[in-house]
Hints:
Number of domains: 2
Shape: globular
Strand content: 5-15%
Structural class: alpha/beta
Largest sheet: 5 strands, parallel
Order of helices and strands: HEEEHEHEHHEHEEH
Oligomer: single chain
Helix content: 40-55%
CATH architecture of the largest domain: 3-Layer(aba) Sandwich
Mean pLDDT: 95
CATH class of the largest domain: Alpha Beta
CATH topology of the largest domain: Rossmann fold
Number of helices: 7
Amino acid sequence: xxxxxxxxxxxxxxxxxxxxRYWNPKMKKFxxxxxxxxxxxxxxxTLLMINKAMNELIKITSYNGKILFIGTKFIAYxxxxxxxxxCNQFYVNHRWLGGMLTNWKTVKNSILKxxxxxxxxxxxxxxxxxxxxxxxYKNKLIKLKKSLDxxxxxxxxxxxxxxIDSNYEKIAIKEANQLGIKVFSIVDTNxxxxxxxxxxxxxxxxxxxxxxxxxxxxxxxxxxxxxxxSFHLNM
Length: 235
């Protein structure tokens, strides 16, 4: 099992919440105190809760469950892609399109369209188009890739979502709740923890903290995948 220490979390700035005037009272039980008008998160609780979340992710992926990483805000979008790909999972790192989960059939049609456009591109379609048509084609492809590239190989709805900022991604969380999909999320002091199955109280605005979460979550997922593969190899 993985060893996460409070020292590691402090080093990554996980304990820094938001300014006290922006707090959500529902996060009170996860707050240790106040320093320079900033809420300080109780890292003992964070440690317990991230370990609980990681254990559940190991369990899900050990049964070949799939996780959708969601982080569309500027500070998180690059890291989300890198870490999701490191554990062969799916991701949305640009704007969340309403209905991405609840209107999955329509989204699957858009994914099919994206895949067809990419096949056409590989087959040299641009050579057969006028300059104007070529530009329209490229713009259409770029737009679809931006929204769907991280889920283009996702055949079904995910078993769980992992969210970096619950406040920023509230639409995605609401959709997951409607469908009974498990929600794992980093929850800062300005956010509402309701609707989240596995709350990880922590700073969601620092790239160091974000990479800390993603690194540990990825380790857990990869352990679950290894268990799944080991079991099936020995059958």
